[in-house]
Every structure is written in structure tokens, then in C-alpha cells.
Write a structure and sequence with these properties.
This protein is an alpha+beta fold. The protein has a single domain (10-95), classed as first zn-finger domain of poly(adp-ribose) polymerase-1, CATH 3.30.1740. It has helices at 55-63, 70-95, and strands spanning 10-14, 22-24, 31-33, 38-43, 51-54. The strands form 2 sheets. It has a 3-stranded antiparallel sheet. Strands 2-3 form a two-stranded antiparallel sheet. Bound molecules: zinc ion.
């Protein structure tokens, strides 16, 4: 998968940062002091691409369906994938 393609799902967890740095929240574009309570959002579990974001922004984006978890993404895919898989199983049975 090319690095430029948008992540299909995200992990979000509380950030535990003891480093006095300042980040920019990718969701609202505002500054985010690392020592304040905030969250990490990790695209497809790839921690090298994790971003620091305001807890409030993450919760708002989650409510808007913008940061689906892996589970939610897989559930949204299953309707599309179940059919071909079922058919290939049926065909395999008929061949026996
Ligand atoms: Zn923000």
C-alpha cells in the first residue's frame, strides 16, 4: 500500500507524554502542549505515523465517524466480502 493512501482505520489511545514538546493537532490545526491531557491516533496501527491530537477533537471525529476503529472498518467491509467468499465456497462444494 502506498504511504499516501488514506488510512482505513485508526487506533486511538491516551497519550502519556512527559516530554515538554508542542505538537499540532491534525484534526483542528491548533497547537497542543504535550504535557496536557491528549490522545494519540495511530493510522492502521502504524506507530511511526502516530499523531498527537486533542482528546476533544478525537472524540468529536469519532462521533462523526471519521476515525473508525479496525473493528468498525472490518464490520463495514464484511458485507462486501461475505458474498464472494460464500460463492467460492459454494463453487468448491459443487466441484467435489
Ligand atoms: Zn485539536
Amino acid at each position: 500500500m502506498p504511504a499516501s493512501s488514506p488510512p482505513r482505520w485508526w487506533q486511538a489511545r491516551r497519550a502519556q507524554n512527559r516530554k515538554p514538546a508542542t505538537y499540532r493537532c491534525p484534526l483542528c490545526g491548533e497547537l497542543l502542549p504535550a504535557l496536557s491531557e491528549h490522545m494519540l491516533i495511530v493510522p492502521e496501527g502504524d506507530s511511526s505515523r502516530r499523531r498527537h491530537a486533542h482528546t476533544e477533537c478525537v472524540l468529536r471525529a469519532r462521533r462523526a465517524g471519521l476515525l473508525p476503529t479496525r473493528e468498525e472498518w472490518e464490520r463495514s467491509q464484511s458485507g462486501r466480502e461475505r458474498r464472494p467468499r460464500l460463492w467460492s465456497r459454494v463453487r468448491a462444494m459443487l466441484r467435489r
